[in-house]
Specification:
By secondary structure, the chain is an all-alpha fold. It has one domain: 23S rRNA-intervening sequence (de novo design (two linked rop proteins), Up-down Bundle). Helix 1 runs antiparallel to helix 4. The longest helix has 37 residues. The radius of gyration is 18 Å and the shape is elongated.
Length: 134
């Protein structure tokens, strides 16, 4: 199956859902009172889907892979911020566990996608490196 648009990518869709959840969480006290952390969390969340889209639109698998890695890094950044928000008492345990699970799922999806694209590149490289003999 060929992906025609980034909005068909499941990790992009999950990133959008997560971003909406982060905006909701950061709009409510006590987290909303920590403007700096809220801003960082929102920017990291937005970066997940944004980098998937930007990489896809570059129409180059090497660039796409690079942007997926950046997206996964943003998810890791957000994961750390969620852990901090929980440990300083801004999130309930259920909020923390739910968001953490969503982030982990996205990170697994991105990791799998990155691995797939790298294997695809390696198989294409091997085909060109060993042309059939006549």
């Amino acid at each position: 199956m060929q992906i025609r648009s980034y909005d068909e990518i499941q990790s992009w869709k999950k990133g959008i859902e997560l971003t909406k959840k982060i905006y909701t969480l950061t709009s409510n006290p006590p987290l909303s009172k920590d403007w700096s952390l809220c801003d960082q969390m929102r920017r990291a969340a937005v970066s997940i889907s944004s980098n998937i889209a930007e990489g896809f639109e570059r129409n180059n698998n090497n660039e796409f892979t690079r942007y997926l890695v950046i997206s996964k890094g943003s998810a890791g950044e957000l994961r750390t911020q969620i852990i901090i928000a929980y440990h300083v008492g801004y999130l309930s345990e259920s909020q923390y566990l739910q968001v953490l699970q969503e982030i982990n799922h996205i990170m697994i999806m991105l990791g799998s996608f990155i691995t797939y694209l790298k294997k695809l590149k390696a198989s294409k490289t091997r085909k060109h490196a060993n042309p059939p003999t006549r």
